[in-house]
Automatic annotation (TrEMBL), chain A:
Role noted for this protein: Probable essential component of SCF (SKP1-CUL1-F-box protein) E3 ubiquitin-protein ligase complexes, which mediate the ubiquitination and subsequent proteasomal degradation of target proteins. Regulates cell proliferation during embryonic and larval development.
Residue ranges of coiled coil: none
Lineage: Eukaryota, Metazoa, Ecdysozoa, Nematoda, Chromadorea
Designated name of the protein: Skp1-related protein
Pathway annotation: Protein modification; protein ubiquitination
Similarity comment: family membership: Belongs to the SKP1 family.
Organism this protein belongs to: Caenorhabditis brenneri
Ranges of biased composition (kind: Basic and acidic residues): 169-194
UniProtKB/TrEMBL annotation, chain B:
Listed Pfam families: F-box, FBA_2
Name used for this protein in its record: F-box domain-containing protein
Lineage: Eukaryota, Metazoa, Ecdysozoa, Nematoda, Chromadorea
InterPro entries in the cross-refs: F-box_dom, F-box_Sdz-33
PROSITE patterns per UniProt: FBOX (PS50181)
Boundaries of every F-box domain copy: 29-83
């Protein structure tokens, strides 16, 4: 799909100001286009640096192709920019190093993140990639909340945490995929050891 | 792993990811380990302490990931005793402690799970003791070798929290094999406390020679046939029963603060200490104190002469030594500026306690000095004290003195001010201390027979306090009403006051309510409240009132209630059977059997620190639908002091599903 034919997704109609402000155009990896205010972009350190480096004028923004964000799909990017527009102008929180961290999830964010875990995973991935500190905080807090009241076994299931044995098996499988002969040699070595052989060679 | 294999793994993950989330859109599973590392670490930062430990215990990989989380160091503290334990403290959560215990009775807990420690799956439970300050959260592991498990767990916590051991408490009467481990694992730490009968002098020698205690070494040991002459280098050396420490050990060390309580140091030793110091020994030394009991003070002048023999000294003059650091209170009293500066010092909250009586006094308690108290009071005979100075309080310079000595239970320091309006000065000083120590009033005790204008002040200044006790002949019933209606007492209200023409029907919400001579409190007041512990002596509760109490409890009232006692003076026990029948009318109850109730606590800890044994003889039991059960007993007994016959009703409730 060409850029001209891409759908334009307005993130927040009400957020479009009466006064002349710069609105940047971004494009997701599935060719969805978004118009995002300059102030909202400041929530993302990555995008903010990018647009500063590009030095676009208002005319450039309209005339040049939308800025491509190749790692993020339209559905995720829509959530990201909705969040940025809602929180535009807010100070970027500074981590004071205290752990466990205390962050409240505002009602808007809770509604925004009322999504399936697949999309939540992508949202965190995007917040990390675009370096949106507070979006990363609230989304990670939502993930951490999944641990509340869980037994260690439930924790394993919820977070899909492999045991040592499963990790070992996965490692062996990866090695085997890389070099099937290496696995055969290893098995042969183990077999000889079992049979009491001192030397492999 | 080469790029091809990496790519293959990524494709496998994407396939798994799509499969997982396409099956069920609202899947409760989340592939945490596939998040980018910074996001993953950020998620881990939101886990509470036990969730974080649980995560780290799952596998080698989760342990490693947990260890990569950047955080402030936490306090890892160990107590090696018959059942060793670990407690964790976090700098940003000063009011909580996370304990890790190894107990034998985990299977008694209603909710328990398997956790893997030291290579084995063991039963474990989490318990919160919300009523304690600091709040105790316990992660309890079942049985096993408590010492070995403690060591293993400390090594694990050391890695995952990237924090060293902060303090070690050691009961020297138990096997101290852990010391070898400690010497190898981490021989240097901040605090070491040793207590108990020393079962091996070589063990004590080992500790003193091989461990490096940086901040405070505190020992209270029962040692025999042992002397220690070598250096004991710690910033602060605090040793009780220190008859095994020689002056040579003191001279070999470079401590900053030394407190040694020993009868062994002679005046000649102290003279030597002064001469060594004069000769340049120990430039770090700030404070030295030794203390021993003497029969009388008759020879004190001779003792002083022996101590100071050959030393040039003169009487201390504070005006000639303005640079000498004073106590924090003295410093804060100098000016508004010093008061503000003192208030900026970060410290643990102290206990500010007031006794309003004919001569009111304030006593301060410090959490780090549980065996000492600091009193502030006014007396008329300050000018008779040998050393006295002017101090400025409440806008006036008044004569004052500082004394110290062993009290009945605690060693005390006493700052005495001369005369003035005692109550006004007390209130002024409390407000001053509140600012300087950034600590609220903890406890107020009040003699109800004296003028208590201070109550109005208290209501305005700080109406919410932890402990309140009132005693003495009440001057006015209005005073009692005022206290009960206007002060919020959080932990314990105790009142020993007989009132006439007074009844109180409203709620008195406090954790523990202890009333004596309490003919004035009605059952309506009890039933309107939600107390946890209630003891009412000299009550006016009739058998019908007690029946109302049982019925209300059976109906679900007051899930907090643990203990209720009502004692009433009666003329004889002729109505014993009828009263019991009236108390239990329409109540379903049965004879109590201890074997059927193994979960019933054996004792009850009251807020005042007193631990009461629960008597299980002649008990009857009743239960309600929410899992609560209770036992009560009804008896007549004669008071040994005044020979009065008492009708006693005791009620103890516990949760069948919780310990």
């Amino acid at each position: 799909m060409s850029v001209e034919n891409a759908p334009v997704v307005d993130v927040d109609e009400a957020a479009i100001p009466v006064e002349k402000k710069m609105y940047y155009r971004f494009e997701s990896n599935d060719k969805k286009e978004f118009r995002v205010s300059e102030l909202a972009i400041q929530q993302s350190e990555t995008l903010n640096r990018l647009v500063e480096a590009m030095g676009y004028t208002s005319e450039d923004v309209e005339n040049k192709p939308a800025i491509a964000i190749e790692n993020i799909d339209g559905k995720t990017l829509k959530l990201v920019f909705q969040w940025c527009e809602h929180h535009k102008g807010e100070a970027i929180p500074v981590d004071d190093g205290s752990v466990p961290k205390i962050v409240e999830i505002p009602e808007f964010d809770a509604k925004l993140m009322d999504i399936d875990n697949g999309l939540l995973f992508k949202l965190i991935w995007a917040a990390d990639y675009l370096n949106i500190v507070q979006l990363l905080n609230v989304s990670c807090k939502k993930v951490a909340n999944m641990a509340q009241g869980k037994t260690p076994a439930q924790l394993r299931r919820v977070y899909l945490l492999p045991s040592d044995e499963e990790d070992e098996a996965a490692k062996r499988a990866a090695q085997e995929a890389q070099d099937p002969r290496a696995r055969e040699v290893e098995e042969e070595f183990e077999e000889r050891k079992r049979q009491g052989g001192n030397s492999f060679f | 792993m080469d790029q091809k294999a990496k790519k293959k793994n990524e494709i496998l993950f994407i396939k798994k990811f799509k499969k997982l989330f396409s099956k069920n859109k609202k899947s409760n599973k989340f592939p945490l380990l596939h998040l980018p590392i910074l996001a993953l670490q950020n998620c881990l930062k939101f886990l509470d302490v036990y969730e974080f430990i649980d995560f780290s215990l799952i596998s080698k990989r989760t342990k490693y990931l947990a260890s990569t989380v950047r955080r402030q160091q936490i306090g890892i503290n160990i107590q090696f005793q018959s059942k060793s334990l670990i407690y964790l403290t976090l700098p940003n959560y000063p009011d909580k402690e996370w304990l890790i215990n190894f107990w034998d009775d985990v299977d008694k807990f209603p909710i328990k799970h398997l956790r893997k420690i030291n290579g084995k799956l063991v039963l474990s439970a989490i318990k919160e003791e919300a009523e304690r300050v600091p709040l105790f959260l316990r992660l309890i592991f079942s049985g096993g070798n408590s010492e070995e498990n403690t060591k293993w767990m400390v090594e694990h916590l050391n890695v995952v929290f990237s924090s060293p051991i902060g303090s070690v408490y050691l009961d020297m009467s138990v096997d101290i094999g852990a010391m070898d481990w400690l010497q190898k694992f981490q021989p240097s730490f901040d605090f070491f406390w040793g207590v108990g009968q020393v079962c091996s002098n070589s063990g004590l020698s080992f500790i003193l020679s091989n461990l490096q205690i940086k901040k405070e070494l505190r020992l209270d040991l029962d040692v025999s046939d042992f002397q220690y002459n070598d250096a004991i280098n710690a910033h602060t050396l605090y040793v009780k029963r220190a008859n095994w420490i020689t002056m040579d050990a003191i001279f070999a060390s470079e401590n900053t603060q030394i407190y040694v309580f020993t009868p062994c140091f002679t005046p000649g030793d102290l003279n030597k200490l002064l001469k060594e110091w004069m000769g340049g020994w120990n430039k770090n030394l700030e404070f030295f104190e030794t203390w021993k009991t003497v029969d009388d003070m008759k020879n004190w002048r001779e003792l002083l002469e022996e101590i100071t023999k050959g030393i040039e000294y003169r009487e201390f003059n504070s005006e000639e030594n303005p640079e000498r650091p004073k106590t924090i209170i003295d410093f804060s009293l100098i000016s508004k500026r010093t008061k503000r500066l003192a208030s900026t010092v970060r410290r643990q909250q102290i206990g500010i306690n007031i006794q309003f009586q004919s001569r009111s006094l304030i006593y301060l308690t410090l959490p780090s000095y549980p065996d000492k108290e600091w009193l502030i009071l006014s007396l008329d005979d300050v000018d008779e004290r040998p050393i006295k100075h002017l101090r400025k309080i409440n806008g006036k310079s008044v004569l004052s003195a500082i004394e110290e000595g062993p009290g009945q239970t605690l060693y005390f320091y006493r700052l005495i001010f001369s005369g003035g309006n005692n109550e006004e000065n007390t209130k002024w000083m409390v407000e001053h201390l509140n600012v300087v120590f950034r600590s609220p009033i903890k406890c107020v005790s009040l003699d109800m027979s004296v003028e208590i204008g201070a109550l109005n002040w208290l209501q305005k200044f700080q109406p919410s306090i932890d402990f309140f006790s009132g005693k003495g002949q009440v001057r006015s019933n209005d005073d009692v009403s005022f206290i009960l209606s206007n002060l919020q007492i959080k932990k314990e209200l105790s009142f020993i006051a007989k009132l006439t023409d007074f009844h109180y029907n409203k709620a008195i919400n406090v954790h523990s309510l202890f009333l004596e001579r309490a003919n004035w409190i009605t059952m309506d007041a009890i039933l309107a409240s939600e107390n946890t512990q209630i003891s009412i002596c000299d009550s006016c509760f009739t058998p019908n009132d007690l029946n109302k109490f049982l019925k209300k409890w059976m109906g679900g009232w007051n899930k907090n209630l643990e203990y209720f006692k009502a004692v009433r003076v009666v003329e004889d026990d002729k109505r014993k059977t009828e009263n019991f029948e009236e108390i239990t009318k329409d109540i379903e109850f049965w004879e109590y059997n201890a074997e059927e109730n193994p979960e019933r606590p054996k004792e009850l800890e009251l807020w005042s620190g007193y631990v009461m044994d629960i008597i299980v003889e002649n008990n009857f039991q009743l239960s309600r639908s929410d899992g609560k059960t209770a036992a009560f007993r009804h008896l007549y007994e004669r008071d040994e002091d005044d020979d009065e016959l008492n009708e006693r009703f005791e009620f103890h409730a516990w949760d069948r599903t919780l310990l």
